[in-house]
């Protein structure tokens, strides 16, 4: 039997595969998997959207497999065949490629089957989508009669035939996309060099689609990568100059998608353009938003499945028990243009926003336990809204653009707990502010809860001054609306802000007022959260024995309503209480118990705080290895949320760790960086309470001039520099010797790191160490006993102590506490 010959350019080696015009980039894993797959199955269809690289992958695979097929690897290109032409178009093209002549009076597929029977051949059918039925019939007939034949097809939709294995060609990985762009860019302009993150931005914006990347790379003849990235918002105009020798459908990005669009039925086109309102969706959402009198809800499932088959819609992961779908960004932009041209954009985007609003308010009530639900259901909601972020941003943008201020504010208010948990309070506070700025005349039932929710977002971002202002403003409209739930919420938020500001009596009064409202049914969340806030208040007051009961009560209530995030907040409070009382094993246990809850829902801010607590306890237990592990994760989480007070606390703890590890210079540097960050966040730029205990011996070890220099360097450091210094592993040989030498004569007066205690508090600490009572201290300083008591409470809170004895021991070590006149420290 003679080898098959091609009449269209095949060679004696048994192939007509084209020579690859330029280097093939990436997809090494895909190639390996496909080679293995073709050893076990006989028909594989490479499916994907236009420009995803199906043909190039098939040709590359064919070249790699030439030695495995004794009778050759043959490519039949179908893209130029008309959809409505002579009968058996696919068979005629295959016969032409293989050099098989038609026989009068005999069907051509039978002739082909006889020619291929017994031959070991890989037949590549390229671009089958417009001839999918004919391709399926021929492939099925040949495979049934030719046992050594393998068929590799490329198509924008599956052939849907027995024995077919569909391989969805994925976009390029980010690193592969960058390599492809750079390779093609250098071919267009040999002196091209990539700089910054523009190439990575282009790869992300173009979803790793090779055709789009190659078209973008061709523009480096006249544009920089940064300019290309900036202009991708108008990508169809930008990416309109491709290879003149390529088929017309592959010369521009629009033409590639046009080709797919033209193959759709009318109802499929309607659904495609309406889906442009989403960044990702479920079947239920598509039915709610896309159906109307033109397109029935009962039709959406089959139409959506057809769009998936035709590679215009991608099936994503399952989230909260529902499969999600998405479009590549270029397809979505194309569909959005079609939506605008059809005059449907306003109606569809409003339905999209309203569907999200309805779900957000229902899910928001579940989140804060106004509606009963198990914890597992709440965990699913957190995961759902991770996937919904793009939709929510789109809905909020549409509401602002359309002047729908009430609807936008209601979305922000409903989902406030989600934003706080995820550490995204800053972004969603900004969204809320944009609506509030345009919210004059809003009804009290909308404005009051929005202000209370905004106050909670401020607490989430640790901006307690803002929290107080918004919560105060929320009280009147919440009361006017008769909204006891949000009134109680605002009061608890006010109590939190007052506690942080040292207005402890005011905080207690706010909590008492909130308690009266939260006693009603359905207020379990506020009742529990208020109880936890009372525990934190008592810690701040130095009433440590009385703090445990409200924290444990809040913990029990939160567990009872299935709100374990709230329970974790109570556990962190109990950990802090145990720290203050010096019960390190109990503190470690409470912080550790909070961790799995917080990890389950990705609660980055609280997770960072619990880990910071574990790090502090490990330091107290002289376990620097465990401290470094916990503090490293805490700092990285805090940086990801951008909450400056949390970052500063992490740097404070690292300063203490550096001192323990023998790096006094690093300790002072990190203390200065933490102080500067606190000052930038609007807090006093003092050293952290715990670090105060380290500063005195560091001053003695390094000397005041060097401490001042290192402190100033830390204050001037960027966040990246400070974090890099914190995360640097300790030198086993000791790092103290690496400290910079003290300047002989500083040009400017040294800036000494301030004490966490005020001058008056240091005076009182000295007198406590000498054994004086509050009344005796009052007589010594000529102030009232009540003022002394307030100062002692502040000292306990700032230093993290639970008793006067701890203050006395600390002061004896670090202050001049001998008999005689008191000296300011």
From TrEMBL:
Region (Disordered): 1-21, 726-754
Keyword line: ATP-binding, Nucleotide-binding
Family annotation (InterPro entries): AAA_22 (IPR049945), HTH_77 (IPR058852), P-loop_NTPase (IPR027417), Sig_transdc_resp-reg_C-effctor (IPR016032), TPR-like_helical_dom_sf (IPR011990), TPR_MalT (IPR041617), Tscrpt_reg_LuxR_C (IPR000792), WH-like_DNA-bd_sf (IPR036388)
Biased composition (Low complexity): 732-745
Domain HTH luxR-type: 750-815
One Pfam family named in its UniProt record: HTH_77
MF-aspect GO terms: ATP binding
Protein name as it appears in the record: ATP-binding protein
Organism per entry: Actinomadura rugatobispora
């Amino acid at each position: 039997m003679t080898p098959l010959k091609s009449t269209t350019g095949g060679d004696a080696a048994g192939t007509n595969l084209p020579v690859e015009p330029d280097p093939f980039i990436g997809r090494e894993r895909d190639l390996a998997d496909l080679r293995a797959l073709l050893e076990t199955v006989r028909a594989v269809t490479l499916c994907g959207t236009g420009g995803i690289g199906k043909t190039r992958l098939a040709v590359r695979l064919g070249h790699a497999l030439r030695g495995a097929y004794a009778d050759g690897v043959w490519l039949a290109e179908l893209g130029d065949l008309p959809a409505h032409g002579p009968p058996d178009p696919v068979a005629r093209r295959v016969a032409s490629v293989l050099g098989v002549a038609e026989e009068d009076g005999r069907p051509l597929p039978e002739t082909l089957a006889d020619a291929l029977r017994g031959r070991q051949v890989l037949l590549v059918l390229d671009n089958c989508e417009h001839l999918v039925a004919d391709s399926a019939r021929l492939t099925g007939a040949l495979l049934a009669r030719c046992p050594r034949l393998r068929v590799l097809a490329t198509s924008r939709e599956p052939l849907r035939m027995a024995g077919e294995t569909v391989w969805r060609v994925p976009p390029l990985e980010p690193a592969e996309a960058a390599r492809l762009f750079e390779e093609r860019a250098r071919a267009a302009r040999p002196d091209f060099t990539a700089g910054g993150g523009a190439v990575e931005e282009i790869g992300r914006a173009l979803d790793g689609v090779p055709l789009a990347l190659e078209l973008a790379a061709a523009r480096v003849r006249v544009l920089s990568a940064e300019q290309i990235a900036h202009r991708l918002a108008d990508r169809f105009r930008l990416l309109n100059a491709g290879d003149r020798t390529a088929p017309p459908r592959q010369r521009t990005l629009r033409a590639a998608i046009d080709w797919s669009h033209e193959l759709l039925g009318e109802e499929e086109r309607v659904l495609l353009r309406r889906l442009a309102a989403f960044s990702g969706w479920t079947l239920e959402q598509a039915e709610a938003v896309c159906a109307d009198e033109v397109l029935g809800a009962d039709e959406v499932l089959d139409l959506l499945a057809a769009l998936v088959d035709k590679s215009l819609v991608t099936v994503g992961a399952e989230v909260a028990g529902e499969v999600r779908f998405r479009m590549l960004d270029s397809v979505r932009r194309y569909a959005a243009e079609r939506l605008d041209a059809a005059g449907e954009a306003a109606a569809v985007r409003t339905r999209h926003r309203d569907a999200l609003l309805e779900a957000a308010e229902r899910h928001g009530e579940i989140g804060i336990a106004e509606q009963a639900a198990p914890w597992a259901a709440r965990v699913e909601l957190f995961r759902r809204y991770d996937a919904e972020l793009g939709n929510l941003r789109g809905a909020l943008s549409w509401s602002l653009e359309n002047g729908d201020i009430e609807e936008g504010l209601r979305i922000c208010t409903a989902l406030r707990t989600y934003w706080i948990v995820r550490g995204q309070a800053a972004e969603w506070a900004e969204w809320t502010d944009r609506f509030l700025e345009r919210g004059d005349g809003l009804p009290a039932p909308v404005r009051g809860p929005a202000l209370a929710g905004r106050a909670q977002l401020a607490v989430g971002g640790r901006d307690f001054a803002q929290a107080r202002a918004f919560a105060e403003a929320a009280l009147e409209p919440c009361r006017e609306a008769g909204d006891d739930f949000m009134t109680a919420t605002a009061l608890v938020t006010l109590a939190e802000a007052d506690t942080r500001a040292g207005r402890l009596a005011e905080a207690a009064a706010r909590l008492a007022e909130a308690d009266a409202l939260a006693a009603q049914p359905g207020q379990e969340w506020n009742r529990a959260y208020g109880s936890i806030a009372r525990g934190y208040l008592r810690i701040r007051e130095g009433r440590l024995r009385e703090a445990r009961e409200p924290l444990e009560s809040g913990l029990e209530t939160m567990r009872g309503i299935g709100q374990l995030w709230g329970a974790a907040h109570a556990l962190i409070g109990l950990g802090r209480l145990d720290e203050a009382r010096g019960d390190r094993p109990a503190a470690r246990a409470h912080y550790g118990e909070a961790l799995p809850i917080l990890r389950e829902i990705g609660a980055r801010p609280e997770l960072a705080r619990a880990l910071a607590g574990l790090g502090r306890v490990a330091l107290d237990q002289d376990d620097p290895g465990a401290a470094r592990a916990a503090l490293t994760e805490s700092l990285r989480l805090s940086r990801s949320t951008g909450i400056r007070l949390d970052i500063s606390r992490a740097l404070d703890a690292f300063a203490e760790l550096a001192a323990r590890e023998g790096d006094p210079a690093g300790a002072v540097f990190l203390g200065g960086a933490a102080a500067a960050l606190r000052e930038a966040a609007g807090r006093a730029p003092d050293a952290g309470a715990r670090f105060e205990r380290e500063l005195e011996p560091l001053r003695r070890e390094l000397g005041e001039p060097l401490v001042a220099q290192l402190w100033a360097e830390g204050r001037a450091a960027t966040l990246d520099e400070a974090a890099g210094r914190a995360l640097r592993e300790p030198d086993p040989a000791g790092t103290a010797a690496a400290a910079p030498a003290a300047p002989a004569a500083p040009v400017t007066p040294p800036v000494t790191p301030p004490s966490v205690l005020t001058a008056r508090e240091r005076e009182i600490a000295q007198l406590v160490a000498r054994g004086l009572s509050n009344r005796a201290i009052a007589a010594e300083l000529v102030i009232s006993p009540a003022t002394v008591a307030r100062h002692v409470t502040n000292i306990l809170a700032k230093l993290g102590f639970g008793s006067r004895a701890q203050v006395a021991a600390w002061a004896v070590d670090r202050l001049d506490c001998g008999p005689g006149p008191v000296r300011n420290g």
